[in-house]
Design goal:
CATH architecture of the largest domain: 3-Layer(aba) Sandwich
Mean pLDDT: 95
CATH class of the largest domain: Alpha Beta
Strand content: 15-25%
Strand order of the largest sheet: 7-2-1-9-10
Radius of gyration: 19 Å
Number of strands: 10
Order of helices and strands: EHHHHHEHHEHEEHEHEHEHEHEH
Largest sheet: 5 strands, parallel
Structural class: alpha/beta
Distance between the termini: 13 Å
Amino acid sequence: MSRKVLIFPGVGSHHVGMGKEFYRNFQVVRDTFEEASEVLKVDMAAMCFSVENAEKLNRLENSQTALLTLSTATYKIYMKEVGEIPAYSMGHSLGEYSALCCAGIVQFPETLKLVKERSRILNEVAFTMDGIMAWVINLDNKIVENVCAQEREHGHRVYVSAYDAPRQSSISGTKEAVMQVGRKLEKEGAIVYPLKLSGPFHSPLMERAAEKFKAILLGYTFNSPIYPVIANYNARPYNDKNCLADYLSLQLIHPIRWQASVDFILEQGIEIAIELGPDRVLKHLMKNNTDKVLPFSLNNMKDLDELTSAHCFEKT
C-alpha cells in the first residue's frame, strides 16, 4: 500500500524558465506544452521560458494555466520514471485543479478551459473592489483569527484566507482592512507582506465570483478518481464526483485548509510527500507542519535523480 501523497503548488510558485530543463529532456513534457498551446491558442513554451514574457506570465490567467500545464507534465514524468500510484493527492488553491486533472477527474484540455474561465471571473470580480491578500508568518493562527474578527466587529472586511501551517497563514480583504490588520499583527511579532495578487481571494468578498463560477462548473462532466484527491474546502477527499461544483466554488470564498489537510494525511499514515511543480514552496510548507513526512520536490533533473534513487521508491 502506498504511503505517499502528491502535492501541487498554486500561484506564487511560477517563474520565468520554469520547466525548461524538463522540456528539453522529455518528449512527454513537450507534448503537454503543445497540447496546452493548441487548447489556449498561446505559445505556452515561449510564455514560460522567455524573459520578455515575464509580465505576461505574471497575469493571473496565464500564471494559472502555465502552472497547471507544468504540474501536469511533471506528473507524467513522475509516472514514467517512478510509476507508483499515490495514496492521495492535494493541491494548494490553483494546485487543486492540477491534482484533480492528474487523478483523472477532469481531462487536461477541459481543466485548462476551466482554469481559464476561473481566472477570467476572478479578475472580473476583483476589478470591482479594492481588495488584496497578505502572508502572515511567525505568528499563531489563532491570534490572526482574533485580530481579523475584532476588525470585522468595527465593520472592516478582512478574513483569514489560508491556514498553511501552525504559524503561517494568509489574510484577504479590503486594502485598508488588510493593512490595518497587518500593522496590528506586526506588533504581535508577525512578518507580514502583501501578495502579488489582484483581489481578496478565498474570502466572502468573492461571493459573486463563486456564484458565477459554479454556474460554469455545473456544465462540466467529472469522472471518478484514479486515487483520492483532498479538497481545500474541507480538508477531506472528494467522496463523490458530483460534489466538484460545490467544493470548487466554495473554495473561492473559504480559506485554504492546508494545515488540516496535512493533519488528515498524517492520520492516514502518509510518510512521503512529492511536490510536482516549479518550486519548493510546498516542500518547505510540509516541513513547517510536521517532521513525520519526508518531503521531496520534482522540478529539475537533479530532483528526479534524487527521487528515483531514494530507497523509499520502487519503479513499477
